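User: Could you go from structure to sequence for me? I need the amino acid at each position, not a summary. Structure tokens:
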């Protein structure tokens, strides 16, 4: 297993990529590193199952808690009875792996991946020790006591009311296959919206963009596909703009839709769909940069590459600028974030509802070039890390007041019953040196390592503004 030592981020030495640092700078960096190594040996931290000493970006005890590497040791039970067809189709002659168990609706381990209602995260019962804990994979109830329906979603922070809005696919309908070989689906119901002050207690704000029941030619007709809605606020127009993946049941339309609202809790007016820049667009996201420019990122060319391009000033359209990135890498489910001027993006592989390995990519300019840094997942066990903790990325939310700290937001899809898909929220920390050289130049990058830490349960740092 590769050692992943973590050091406190040294004062950044900014040499432009490709340029040579002078001899004295190199010597002083070495001296600095030695000093840091010496310092690090004075800290007594959990070594995360043989991963070496970890120095935290902050000494706040709750941050230490977040960065602890928590191992999982799940025993795979001996085969019993018949496998469900979904599990049987995969690797029929190999020994059973945890992912086979995950995909098997009849697995004895089902309750580990999809715990029942009794273990739901219930904001109405938040007294005592369980207050404000996130339990990845558990059913998460809104303040009415109903499971939150915001899959493939994203979160918008409305700074005037200090309120978070969580938008996502409202999938509370029966799962079926439109075609024998097609993926499992739920008819479009619409985009669900939930609001919260603390990122833990969520009030249902209703369906802010609803399906069309009868108009079969409409993009939002229930027989189509509406996925991965994301909302950004346009400071110039004062409008809330929603972008989403629009498709037909066979995923051949491959388009993006746009909707707009005067208020974050809708209703949103649907403006129509297009193939951005004339290309196929499936999994997608929107990213609003510090300078007010917003970008669309989408999987294209049969999901073999991603395209990134700025939106128009009003965020209602794409411009003519577009760059192809991660060409030939077959990535989807993009989730972008920025830290200290560097852009980061988490993506998944393309395996439908089945989980796969996440990768993190980084770039100095959002239009690229983008470098792949490796798998950000820490802890759990190998299978947890190779399946992104049995989930797929959808969004990364900065934690205000704690630079370098984010919440990684992912979906644990349940293809047998999509409405029962779960949310995996975990701490994502940008700190310490990247552990892989750049792909093309073999130099070490300037950017930091991105780590997503597995926890069975965890909570936001106490000093966090939302809990004041
Ligand atoms: C995944 C994608 C999901 C959904 C699913 C359908 O690859 O990330 O958003 O489209 O396929 O099978």
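Assistant: Here is the amino acid at each position, in order:
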């Amino acid at each position: 297993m590769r050692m992943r030592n973590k050091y406190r981020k040294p004062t950044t030495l900014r040499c432009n990529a490709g340029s040579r640092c002078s001899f004295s700078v190199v010597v002083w960096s070495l001296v600095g590193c030695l000093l840091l190594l010496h310092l690090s040996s004075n800290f007594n931290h959990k070594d995360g199952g043989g991963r070496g000493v970890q120095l935290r970006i902050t000494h706040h005890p709750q941050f230490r808690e977040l960065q602890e590497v928590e191992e999982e040791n799940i025993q795979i039970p001996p085969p019993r009875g018949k496998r469900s067809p979904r599990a049987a189709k995969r690797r029929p002659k190999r020994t059973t792996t945890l992912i086979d168990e995950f995909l098997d609706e009849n697995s004895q381990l089902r309750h580990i991946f999809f715990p029942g209602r009794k273990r739901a995260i219930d904001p109405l019962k938040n007294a005592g020790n369980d207050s404000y804990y996130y339990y990845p994979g558990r059913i998460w109830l809104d303040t009415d006591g109903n499971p939150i329906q915001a899959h493939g979603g994203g979160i918008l922070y409305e700074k005037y009311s200090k309120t978070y809005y969580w938008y996502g696919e409202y999938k509370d309908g029966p799962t079926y296959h439109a075609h024998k070989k097609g993926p499992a689906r739920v008819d479009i119901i619409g985009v669900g919206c939930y609001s919260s002050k603390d990122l833990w207690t969520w009030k249902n704000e209703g369906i802010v963009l609803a399906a069309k029941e009868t108009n079969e030619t409409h993009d939002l007709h229930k027989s189509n596909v509406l996925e991965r809605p994301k909302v950004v606020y346009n400071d110039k127009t004062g409008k809330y703009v929603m972008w989403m993946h629009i498709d037909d049941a066979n995923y051949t339309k491959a388009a993006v839709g746009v909707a707009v609202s005067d208020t974050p809790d809708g209703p949103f007016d649907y403006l129509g769909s297009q193939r951005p820049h004339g290309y196929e667009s499936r999994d997608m996201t929107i990213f609003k940069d510090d300078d007010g420019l917003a970008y669309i990122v989408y999987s294209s060319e049969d999901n073999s590459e991603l395209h990134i391009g700025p939106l128009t000033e009003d965020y209602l359209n794409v411009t003519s600028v577009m760059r192809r990135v991660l060409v030939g890498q077959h990535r989807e489910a993009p989730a972008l974030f920025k830290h200290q001027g560097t852009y980061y993006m988490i993506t998944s592989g393309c395996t439908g509802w089945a989980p796969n390995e996440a990768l993190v990519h980084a770039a100095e300019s959002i239009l690229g070039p983008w470098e792949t840094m490796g798998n950000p997942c820490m802890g759990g066990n190998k299978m947890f890390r190779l399946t992104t903790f049995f989930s797929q990325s959808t969004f990364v939310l900065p934690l205000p007041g704690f630079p370098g700290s984010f919440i990684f937001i992912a979906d644990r899809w349940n293809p047998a019953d999509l409405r029962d898909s779960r949310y995996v929220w975990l701490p994502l920390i940008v700190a310490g040196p990247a552990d892989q050289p750049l792909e093309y130049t073999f130099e070490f990058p300037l950017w930091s390592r991105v780590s997503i830490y597995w926890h069975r349960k965890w909570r936001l740092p106490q000093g966090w503004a939302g809990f004041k």
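One structural detail worth keeping in mind: Residues 1-21, 35-57 have pLDDT under 50 and may be disordered.
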